[in-house]
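G.,

No rush on this.
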Amino acid sequence: MADPVVNHLLPVDNIRAAYHLLEERVVTALRTQLGDAARLANVRSQALSLLQTSQPRQHDFPPEEWATFQRSISNMVQQLDGACHASNDPPPSASLSVSTRVSSGRRGRPRIEISPSFLAEALTLRGPTRIAPALGCSPRTVRRRALEQGLVQPAPAVIRQEALPDGTVIRTHTPPVAAYTVVSDAQLDNIVSHTLEIFPRFGRAMLHGHLKACGYILPVKRVT
């Protein structure tokens, strides 16, 4: 059965929303349905169906976004296939483990190690904040492991100190910059116009939330 929230979106946004719902199901399946080949196959079928039904809209997407869309679904299918094979023929005493707790022998919490292959794949589907609950750790831990494994680049230092020849130390504060979606004013106006045709009672807050759900991360002041 199709998701009712998706059916009321525009065709391209329909696909984007369906993709976000699919990635939720894939991650949940990989974490909770190992050993249930029928359910894994069902999610796999949903992934392939989304890719097939999206083909006629290929040229409505920017080339880079479409390539990422195809690659991500291909990765999902491979992960689901791997989970099916692992569940059908498991090693005698092994189980799927993507994170482990390692004690340092000192006081404090044990260090959480995350499988590099799992983390690399998970980061193509979602950010640290949404990966963390599945691993039982904080988003900060996920970001640290991603940095250690070279999967992401470190952000510029928020506070930078520079020593001048006369001994004076200058502290420069650079606030973090949000990773907003790149979209022109004309494109955004078109998206907002079509959205308001469907949801004429949307105020700024609801419109902003709707755009975010469709994958458009924008500052509130741009949504009017």
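When you get to it, here's the other one too:
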Amino acid sequence: VNEDQYSNEDEMFQLVHDMRTRVVTSPSFSPDKILGAILFEQTMDREVESKYTADYLADKGVVPFLKVDKGLAEEQNGVQLMKPID
């Protein structure tokens, strides 16, 4: 999604979701080719064809996985941990 296509973060996330929706509703996105899909926390709250994204994928035979972090935290003592989802 190009920066000139949106004016704020909400619009950007909606455009990204619209793109994801086109991908997962494609006949090519099927359980014989796709075993699972990693979903971001925000994606879990969005809908595809009037179903929550995870439910849509499960009904289609694709296992939804929740991404369980929010990126990497700052390095401390030589270790860099994942930021937890609150």
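The chain is about 35% helix and 20% strand. The helical segments are 9-24, 41-44, 53-60.

Enjoy the weekend,
O.
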